Amino acid sequence: MATPAQAAISQQPMIGHHPGCNPTVYTLQRDGIEVQITDAGASLYRLRVPDAQGQPDDILCAPRLAEHFVANPAYMGATVGRYANRIAGARFTLDGTEHSLVANEGDNQLHGGEGWHRQLWQADILDTDSGPSLKFTYRSVAGEGGFPGTVVARVRYSLLADRTLQIAYYAETDAPTVVNMTNHAYFNLHGAHYQGLRGHHMRIPARQITETGPGNLPTGRLLDVAGTPFDLRQAQDVGMVVEGQPEALQATQGYDHNYVFTTENTEQLLDMAIAHSTLTGRTLRISSTQPGMQFYTGNFMGGQPGPEPDRPYDNHQAFCCEPQHFPDTPNQPGFPTCVITPDRPYRQTLVYRFGVED
Questions:
Q1: Cα 275 to Cα 1, 172, 188, 189, 260, distances in angstroms
Q2: Cβ 294 vs Cβ 257: under 8 Å
Q3: 83 assigned ligand-binding residue
Q4: Residue 240: left if φ>0, alpha if ψ -120 to 50, beta else—which one?
Q5: Cis ω on the peptide bond leading into residue 82 (within 30° of 0)?
Q6: What residues bind beta-D-galactose, as annotated (predicted)?
Q7: 358 burial class (0-12, 13-18, 19+ CB within 10 angstroms)?
Q8: How buried is residue 250: exposed, middle or buried, by Cβ count under 10 Å (0-12/13-18/19+)?
Q9: Is 159 in contact with 168 (CB distance < 8 Å)?
Q10: How do the pLDDT tens digits run along the chain, 358 residues long?
């Protein structure tokens, strides 16, 4: 007999075909929210949320066919690891030993190189009193991507009351290493796919970003946002800002910057972003225990397959809010540490809250 959790979660094969990989899609429903999650990269696949008139629509930009989703070069909806964001020179030193990583963005590493987003994770349906929940597990052996230590990573998705999706991250290791996990969902709160970002009002209550230099790598300094296009402490239509091409955003062709919320590790949930679609009334509130959040406006998503396989996305048709440790933390001693040990595992929480607003 199926448990209540199993009865509340359906599953089916992902459409399409990828040789040697047959992803499964799991569907969770509650309070008018329907979220689909796949074991391919422990990824968000679809997310149907009602608008101000109660009409649901998918607010995730992502491919639909297995042959596109498993490759997923834009990390759409994926769990990113072992280290989210960039590591300069694809190398770092830990306890006196230099570790050379797989470079996949010029001389640097981005999002763990080959990364966890390309792996098929083990899925388990959980019995909980709080709502439908899925746990995904992946074992990353020592040396994978060049990283030390064998890491067992777990990602737990829970659809909670009040239209809340919680993602809990946990990782344990048999040797000191670095870990930085996030979700790389591409959101468009207008709902209908292939629309631009104009009409998305974004508020990010952070007064600093990590300053960047060549390669969008941090310099180690923090930059006050006041008086710059990075100041989103009052909500701005980020689609219009990006279209205006201010000089500060030209090198990255839009936002692709890490906002600083704390310079110390914390277990406290921090409010990081509020997004609002003026077309549909949908709102998305993001909070996390992470010290930073990368805000990205889909500057290079053009050409990626969407729900219509023969119609690729254009640039700037979605935004990403990726709570995480700061970029290049393994090479920046002044940033909050991302080192975990057998006695100090990795724990972080990410919360999405969906709503409507006139």
A1: 42, 33, 10, 8, 18
A2: yes
A3: no
A4: alpha
A5: yes
A6: 85-86, 184-186, 256
A7: exposed
A8: exposed
A9: no
A10: 455 555 579 999 999 988 888 999 999 999 999 999 999 999 999 999 999 999 999 999 999 999 999 989 999 999 999 999 999 999 999 999 999 999 999 999 999 998 999 999 999 999 888 889 999 999 999 999 999 999 999 999 999 999 999 999 999 999 999 999 999 999 999 996 778 999 999 999 999 999 999 999 999 999 999 999 999 999 999 999 999 999 999 999 999 999 999 999 999 999 999 999 999 999 999 999 999 999 999 999 999 999 887 899 999 999 999 999 999 999 999 999 999 999 999 999 999 999 999 7
Q: Locate 306 and state its tokens.
A: 């969407």
- CA geometry: angle 77, 6, 269, nearest 5 deg: 45
CA distances to 30, 75, 336, 354 from 13, rounded to whole Å, are 22, 20, 40, 27
The whole-angstrom separation of Cα 358 and Cα 276 is: 10
- The residues assigned a catalytic role are 184, 322
> For residue 37, what are the β-bridge partners?
26, 44
Beta bridge partners of 155: 136, 169
- Return d(Cα 313, Cα 76) in angstroms, integer: 12
The yes or no reply on domain 4-356 and CATH 2.70.98.10 is yes
The bridge status of strand 133-140 relative to strand 9-13 is unpaired
Q: Which DSSP string corresponds to 310-324?
A: TSBPPTTS-BEEEEE
Residue 203 annotated in ligand binding:
no
Say whether 186 counts as a known binding-site residue. yes
Nearest Cα to Cα of residue 121 among 88, 84, 152: 152
How many angstroms separate the CA atoms of 298 and 293, rounded?
A: 15
Residue 256, annotated ligand binder? Answer: yes
Chain centre to alpha carbon of residue 223: 23
